[in-house]
Amino acid sequence: MKTKKILSAIVVVALTLVMTNSCIQGEFDKPPIDIPEANLTANKTIAELKTQFNTNLDSISEEIIIKGIVVANDESGNLYKKLVIQDETAGIELALDRNSLYTEYRLGQLVYVKCQGMYIGKYGGLHQLGYVHENSIGRLPEAYIDLHLFRDSLPGPVPAPKVIAMNDNNIKSYLSMLVQFDDVSFPDAGSVWATQSASATNRDLVDNSNNKIIVRTSKYANFASSLIPGGKGTVKGILNIFNNDLQLTIRDTSDVLGFVPFVPAFFEESFADGIGSFIAHSVIGTQQWIHDANYSCMKMSGYQSGSSHKNEDWLISPSLDLSGASSIEISFDHAINKGSLANLQSNHTLWICENYNENDFAANNWHQVTIETYPAGNNWLFVNTTANFNLQGNITNLSNVRFAFKYLCSDSESATWEIKNVKVKKQ
User: Fold this and answer.
1) Intra-chain end-to-end CA distance of the chain, in Å
2) Parallel, antiparallel, or unpaired: how do β-strands 212-218 and 245-249 relate?
3) 0.90 surpassed by pTM
4) Is the distance from CB of 50 to CB of 177 less than 8 angstroms?
5) Is 261 exposed, middle or buried, given 0-12, 13-18 or 19+ CB atoms closer than 10 A?
6) From CA 26, how far away is CA 99, in angstroms rounded?
7) Tens digit of pLDDT for each residue in 182-219?
8) CA 130 → CA 79, 81, 84, 136, 243, distances in Å?
9) Most Cβ neighbours (<10 Å): which of 62, 232, 359, 394?
10) pLDDT exceeds cutoff 80 at 315
């Protein structure tokens, strides 16, 4: 009898374990993955569509189907009710009256668009595919979106950005495509991407030749209040245009690569109102650094009365206390013109020293600092540059440091050097 009871207990325990395991297994079953399938075939490229409809507003009555990969959506808030898709030929902006499009149309998502019944036109010169609104191109109503847009497969890789130059003669062929600019900088480093006083804020992006493109950021972008980084780097984004002004829309701050976090300036002098706290010291020649009110800068030239005159002139900063710093970054805008290009870098230099002795200038121990970027030397365009100097092992007394701009010329040639917007950052 005891044996039967024991066997019965074993059976109950075994059944309990089986049922428990079955329940646990059921709790961890994964739901099936819904992989969208469009079952459509594109019969025009995006480039062909834009070429065919190149006016301010057209209705599409033909059975046209395009396809493209999502390269930008509204996830960061920098785009509003828009998607941007591109194929191997071109890109186009889709104006869609729906919020949170990114939850359905992720970056890398392949999308087919049935264009028949939609409208295509230009807003500020940029092609948009959507619907009619007050006799111009507008957003496709939400009720129509699922009748025209069809996802296919799961999101895949985003196409690599097109690496282009700002002065590319064919730059407009990349409108509404993901592009990339290398070795560029933001003159507004340290400012927020977008203020809250306007719907969007324009910031310049500048290359080494002082070519510029507008980076436009919405005040609703989730990075609007972040600070624009300093230094130089790479910027990716969607190229667009508004009334002939080329613009770049970054999707989020991951599109901004290789820059350094902004460090507030320890010392600044714009030269807008004069020489400020700098001093001018002439070693050779009668010409000196002077203030130019018209261009809000300090300038030096050895040219006077129709001829060049040999000069060595220094524009010297006030004493700076750099205690605790391991290095400094000096940035400024400068323009150079009218001199020999062969002497462009040797005649226009930057130096630093400690314990400056005004009464015995020759006794000062100056260290040259490399200026990263020089102007072309044959025009009056200002170019922003930085110069970095390692203080460790070079400067002993960090509490009394000065830097200076040194100008040289000869009796046979002399350039004009203009300088403004000087900033020093401790690092």
Assistant:
1) 88
2) parallel
3) no
4) no
5) exposed
6) 36
7) 999 999 988 999 999 999 999 999 999 989 999 999 99
8) 15, 11, 12, 10, 20
9) 232
10) yes
Distance CA 48, CA 70 (A): 18
The SS3 assignment for 101 reads helix
User: Rounded to an integer, what distance in angstroms lies between the CA atom of residue 24 and that of residue 118?
Assistant: 51
Q: How confident is the model at residue 20 (pLDDT cuts 50, 70, 90)?
A: very low
Rounded Cα distance between 399 and 212, Å, is: 39
Q: Report the distance separating Cα 13 and Cα 264, nearest Å.
A: 71
Calculate the CA 319 to chain-centre distance: 35
Buried b or exposed e, range 370-389, using 16+ CB within 10 angstroms: ebeeebebeeeebbbbbbeb
Any idea what the Cα angle at residue 175 is, between residues 171 and 181, rounded to 5°? 55
Task: Find the Cα–Cα–Cα–Cα dihedral 46, 48, 51, 57, rounded to 10°.
Answer: -60
Residue 172: strand, helix, or coil: helix
The span from the CA of 141 to the CA of 74, in Å, is 17
Number of helical (H) and strand (E) elements in the chain, helices listed first: 3, 29
**Residues written for the chain:** 427
